[in-house]
Amino acid sequence: MPHARTIRAPGSAPRQDARTRWIWLAGWPVTAVFVLSNAATPLYVLWQRDIGFSKGTLTVVFAFYIVGLLGSLLVSGVLSDRLGRRPVLLPALALALLACGVFATAGTVTALIVARLLTGIAVGATVSAGMAAVTDVAGPHRRRLAALLASSAMVFGAGLGPLLSGVLSETLPAPAVTVFAVEAVLLVTAVLVVMRMPLPRPAGAPARTAGTAVRTWIRMPGVPRGSAVRLVLGIAVFAPGITATSFVLSLGPSLLFGLLGTGNRAVAGGLAFLMFAAATGVQFAVQRLPRRTVLLAGSAATAAAMAALVAAVHGASVTALAASAALAGAGQGMGQLGGLSLLNAAVPPRRLAEANAAFNIGGYVPAGLLPVTAGYLSDAAGLTTGATLFAAALAALAAAGALIVLAGRRHADDQPR
Q1: Is residue 216 part of a domain?
Q2: Cβ–Cβ < 8 Å for 361, 73
């Protein structure tokens, strides 16, 4: 009697070798979008020279990225869990491509704001749907690996963007056009990956009664009952970390100009790359440590980054500024990995994109507000004073985050798996 063939249902998991390959490929759309998220960083000095705007205006342009991202997170997580990852990721990539076109031709502050807003919307959809897609492809037995790869894809792209932008804009003609044409090619390859990615069927929307449709589809993202403490523990460390890296991205080129007297875009891009290379490397280094240890180390790194920032601006030290950037990246990386690991271990797939959205909202709100405040303080009282006050406030937040992790150690003490 011949052996019966095993028939795979549509949407079922692929063979093991194919799944292993796709676990790594699934992170590429996240990387490609995050390349765009920071590709503009080295070009701000160029736009400031050509258009003419203050450091406060620069941080406002940066903050519109946060506005778009937060607005996107309010809907993209729920939509992704209900409709599937692909219907959210493909429009996000289309918006990212549109942002490339606006950046490439920007000649006003308004155009920069529009481009940053579109970028934020695309990134918001990607951090919820794209990072959940990595977990979906990895399967239930590789959730720790999925959290590591999704988080690393995010920070690697965030660091690769300014490095590529800085080098390309210094070595090739038409800096903005060149940078964003290359980024558009990367995004097109990400579209191809999303179209072929082996994703499971979405859970679909739950039954709704009359008058509840809008409330259930557009709402403040949250986590299932019993996971709220894990969410708070992750945000307590991730928020100060990503706020520190946001400060370096928005005002790092201005600090370099003050310390080095140079507007070299490759140097600015290299500083951002150093920061996110540290964020990527530290996650692989600590992946096997208990989550509580990772979170506490993340808080300590962020606090140390702020001490180095104060030393840099008061001592006019480029070495201290580089140390601050690397430590800030390490703080974000460990906060991000620890928080995502806690959520991946407890939140079911049907709510994971929404949980990712809630986690990122908690991190990006202070990352948008505090650097803008520091930017206007720098305009009014000088860059040294603005950076010092920012560093003091953020160090206090990092210390508070460590205390929160210690208080919630029962939830953070899960061993890695």
Answers
A1: no
A2: yes
CB-based burial of residue 385 (10 Å sphere; 0-12 exposed, 13-18 middle, 19+ buried)? Answer: middle
Assess if residue 217 is contained within a domain.
no
Confidence (pLDDT) at 283: 92
DSSP string, 235-265: HHHHHHHHHHHHHHHHHHHHHHHHHHS---H
What span, in angstroms and rounded, lies between the C-alpha atoms of 223 and 239? 17
Using a cut of 0.85, tell me whether the model's pTM lies above it.
no
Length of the chain: 417
Break the chain down into helix, strand, coil percent, rounded to 5.
80, 0, 20
Q: What is the pLDDT of residues 340-388, one digit of tens each?
A: 899 888 888 888 888 888 898 899 888 878 887 887 887 788 888 888 9
In three-state secondary structure terms, 362 is helix
Question: CA-based Rg of the chain, rounded to a whole angstrom?
Answer: 21
Burial class (CB in 10 A: 0-12, 13-18, 19+), 352: buried
For residue 180, the enclosing domain spans: 16-200+222-412
Count how many domains the chain has. Answer: 1
